[in-house]
Design goal:
Layout lengths: L1 E2 L6 E2 L3 E8 L2 E8 L7 H24 L7 E5 L4 E5 L4 E2 H4 L5 H20 L2 E2 L8 E4 L2 E4 L6 E2 L3 H18 L4 H15 L4 H14 L5 H13 L1
Antiparallel strand pairs: 1-3, 2-3, 3-4, 4-6, 5-6, 7-9, 8-11, 9-10
């Protein structure tokens, strides 16, 4: 596999993204980085755990027909995940240039896929326009680095809250049509208690906060080092 290790494609909080080629296909290589502030043992366990979880979730969602990058290779020990490269434009950039009809269609697509994902007990953890790609095959959801499994409806509400916050921040005039179409599609596919989810979404919005990631890290650290 050929990888351009000298020129990272992007640099996230937890991982570095490279572009490469594998068996004639363009691929994305995600390499999680060690953090000097983490205990070496915890750092290794954290990287392996997050890599394993992200790969497992991608396999399950891809198999279920949800538009996510196809996982190709996973190296849990070294925190490396190789995925399909999805050609297209980030929704964070594309949305403003789209017609209202296209915005509504895209929002419905995302709403359907998000509901199906939540039905599987999976939350994304960072469901924003920046983590969606508009391609010729539809809207793809990417970057499941903060994703996880949960039956807690608050996790699903937080996903929707983050998406709404993303649209309102980047494209305020499109917030109403986008979220109306998203919620309409979501309601049609979501198998849980929709009214309970709406109530939890209102509570999350009133609190006006994001997921406390430091608390999550503390819980995970205690879980692995006990």
């Amino acid at each position: 596999m050929a990888v351009d290790g000298e020129n990272p494609y992007s640099w996230g909080a937890e991982a570095t993204i490279y572009l490469g080629e594998f068996l004639g296909r363009r691929v994305v290589v995600k390499k999680r980085r060690s953090k000097p502030y983490r205990h070496p043992l915890y750092d290794s366990l954290f990287i392996q755990s997050r890599t394993r979880t992200e790969a497992k979730i991608l396999v399950e969602l891809y198999t279920a027909g949800i538009n996510v990058p196809a996982p190709i290779i996973v190296d849990i020990e070294n925190g490396v995940l190789v995925m399909e490269y999805v050609e297209g434009e980030r929704m964070s950039e594309a949305l403003g240039a789209m017609s209202i009809e296209a915005v509504v269609d895209a929002a419905r697509d995302v709403g359907r896929q998000t509901a199906l994902m939540h039905n599987m007990g999976v939350y994304h953890g960072d469901l924003t326009l920046a983590n969606m790609i508009r391609s010729r095959r539809g809207v793809y959801i990417i970057d499941f680095g903060l994703a996880g499994y949960s039956t807690d409806i608050e996790e699903y509400a937080i996903d929707i809250h983050l998406l709404r916050k993303s649209v309102s921040t980047l494209h305020p005039p499109l917030l109403q049509p986008f979220m109306d179409a998203f919620m309409e599609a979501y309601k049609g596919y979501y198998k849980g208690n929709y009214e309970e989810l709406l109530q939890r979404l209102r509570e999350v919005s009133i609190r006006g906060r994001y997921v406390d990631r430091e608390l999550r890290r503390t819980v995970m650290r205690e879980r692995y080092l006990d």
